[in-house]
Design goal:
There is one protein chain. The protein is an alpha/beta fold and 352 residues long. Helix 4 runs antiparallel to helix 5, helix 5 packs antiparallel against helix 6 and helix 7 crosses helix 13. The strands form two sheets. Strands 1-2-4-3-5-6-8-10 form an eight-stranded mixed sheet, sandwiched between helices. It is globular. 46% of the residues lie in helices and 14% in strands. It contains 13 helices and ten strands.
Length: 352
């Protein structure tokens, strides 16, 4: 049954427009996005339609692989993973369908990297799952990429590629309530405990401690800043479209409330989690370089953006990108190179 979010007037064209730059940033072909979303008449059909497009790319990948065209197969598996991931960008009440799409995204990306980057390593436990890429450069440092409330490790390919191109290894992860872990865990405001386990696992896999940075996007920005304040092995942190705090349950839009309730397990748990998303006390404890990136046009009711975080953190820097929306998918050239260079430089300094 449709929830209040789905019953809002004009919700279908609004949701398509709001996610246009985000999905482009996630790697979906813009023309295919317009074709696929243009055929929708009900937002409730979004997941199934996007999964169907993912399956088309999956079939292409399997055909390429059977024919020995391994590069083309890997690229098609990666496209499939992106479409499967984007199937779950909304608080759809069919959680089994969402879980299945997340599993398909996870499996397709595993198959893509097996062909395109055979040195990529999967690392996981009960609360998180991720892939270490560029391990040959890990001695220079590893950037842990943390997704947001409705995101996953299959989304931020451009960021990962920018870091890898600068000689930084990347560990893109799903934590509690995210991606492939959303079906079995719920969101956790004390995300630093998860990051600590990730750092333990990275050091064990690599055989020695290496400099670690954390970069978080949307709610992942809160997770990144919180982790930098509480996990002493984090050497630098970046937030992109991350909240400084969430001001209150009734201040937020139905999309945020319903997504929080689903990812938390209940409305009550969602309210409790939302009240925890507040960096006012934690910001002064961030004793490492912190870069806070916001889109100047990113305005979400109930969300206080990052300028105050950068001001309160002892080593905070603030970048407001003109024209940028949430996640800045519409102005990628204005921030991705900056973030890639900034992380690479801070990790080089940490390792010297």
């Amino acid at each position: 049954m449709p929830t209040p979010f789905f019953r809002q007037p004009g919700v279908l064209p609004d949701f398509i427009a709001q996610n246009r730059s985000r999905t482009y940033g996630a790697g979906l072909d813009p023309y295919t996005y317009e074709r696929v979303t243009g055929a929708l008449t009900d937002l409730m059909d979004w997941p199934g339609t996007f999964v169907g497009e993912g399956r088309r790319h999956l079939a292409d990948a399997e055909r390429f692989e059977a024919g020995g065209a391994m590069r083309s197969a890997g690229e098609a598996y990666r496209r499939a993973a992106r479409w499967f991931h984007c199937a779950v960008l909304l608080p759809h009440p069919d959680r089994e369908q969402a879980a299945h799409a997340a599993r398909q995204a996870d499996a397709a990306m595993d198959r893509a990297l097996a062909l395109l980057e055979p040195d990529a390593v999967r690392i996981e436990d009960h609360s998180y799952a991720g892939r270490l890429r560029g391990a040959a450069h890990a001695g220079r440092g590893v950037a842990v990429v943390v997704p947001g409330l409705d995101s996953s490790k299959e989304e931020f390919h451009d960021l990962a590629d920018a870091l890898l191109a600068r000689g930084v290894a990347v560990f893109a992860m799903d934590g509690p309530g995210q991606g492939v872990r959303a079906a079995t865990t719920t969101v956790d405001a004390d995300y630093h405990h998860v990051v600590a386990r990730v750092v333990d696992a990275l050091h064990a896999r690599l055989g020695a401690p290496v400099p670690v940075a954390v970069v978080g996007l949307s709610l992942g920005g809160y997770y990144a800043a919180w982790s930098a304040a509480h996990e002493p092995r984090i050497r630098a942190a970046v937030t992109v479209s991350g909240p400084y705090r969430l001001t209150g349950w009734d201040d937020t839009v139905p999309f945020v409330r319903e997504t929080l309730a689903l990812r938390s397990g209940s409305e009550r748990a969602g309210r409790e989690f939302l009240a925890r998303v507040d960096l006012r006390d934690a910001a002064p404890r961030i004793q490492v370089p912190l870069l806070v990136v916001d889109g100047a046009e990113d305005v979400i009711p109930g969300v206080e953006n990052g300028a105050a975080l950068a001001a309160a953190a002892p080593y905070g820097e603030y970048l407001s990108v003109p024209g940028g929306d949430h996640l800045l998918g519409n102005v990628r050239d204005r921030w991705l190179p900056v973030v890639g260079d900034w992380i690479a430089e801070r990790l080089r300094g940490a390792g010297s």
